[in-house]
Amino acid sequence: MRAVQTQEQRTNDELKALAEQAGRDLEDASALEILQWAVDTFGERFCVTSSMEDAVVAHLASRARPGVDVVFLDTGYHFPETIGTRDAVAAVMDVNVITLTPRQTVAEQDAEFGAKLHDRNPDLCCAMRKVKPLEEGLTSYAAWATGLRRDESPTRANTPVVGWDEKRRKVKVSPIARWTQDDVDAYVLEHGVLTNPLLMDGYGSVGCAPCTRRLLEGEDARAGRWSGNAKTECGIH
Ligand code: SF4
């Protein structure tokens, strides 16, 4: 009798084909249905990543799998409000918050590369403080969920609800890719979901403090990130 194939036995090619098929099949599914598929398919090898801008995807995922792992990257440069949101999520929601940190503290990085590397070489700063720790933190997972939305910026307009993350060779799930800001606001209101207080203080997107500013009238949600620099993404997406 042929044994049931476990996720561990699936090759990257098989995972990639699975992700691309799911992306087509689930394009019109609800966010909760997409997360339920991810939970049913990957079990403990599935996690949610959160920047703690809000806890919408963490909340949805906890409905699909109570106690789900929620991975947060503590770059050492976060606003106090972001750390406070992380702590509140861990305290009140049925999720397992896992905090990842870079290999170097900010002081150690400053000693080796000089102060304010984020102003001089944000790509290197993001690579060391975001991309590398996430890559290492995701090694035990086969699939991860993000809060990416197509309406956030032109660079995110083609985000699939399920796709293949070639950089990390994992299945990448974006359950609210089709949502608008109005959908997010309605979900937050309906379920009393925790949000970062900075969203009520003029910020459209919340990242590291040195690289995030409030929005000006008419700007898209991510315009306040790396303002004045051509950089639009940290390298994770
Ligand atoms: Fe460094 Fe800015 Fe990237 Fe944060 S967002 S890791 S401070 S460059």
From TrEMBL:
The UniProt catalytic activity note for this protein reads: [thioredoxin]-disulfide + sulfite + AMP + 2 H(+) = adenosine 5'-phosphosulfate + [thioredoxin]-dithiol
Q: In which pathway does it act?
A: Sulfur metabolism; hydrogen sulfide biosynthesis; sulfite from sulfate
Q: Looking at its record, which EC class is this enzyme?
A: oxidoreductase
- Provide the protein's localization: Cytoplasm
Q: Which residues bind [4Fe-4S] cluster?
A: C125, C126, C208, C211
Active site, UniProt feature? C234 (nucleophile)
Q: Where is the Phosphoadenosine phosphosulphate reductase domain?
A: 51-213
Q: Does the keyword Calcium apply?
A: no
Transmembrane region(s): none
* InterPro entries for the chain: PAPS/APS_Rdtase (IPR004511), PAPS_reduct_dom (IPR002500), Rossmann-like_a/b/a_fold (IPR014729)
State the protein's purpose.
Catalyzes the formation of sulfite from adenosine 5'-phosphosulfate (APS) using thioredoxin as an electron donor.
Family (UniProt): Belongs to the PAPS reductase family. CysH subfamily.
The protein's name: Adenosine 5'-phosphosulfate reductase
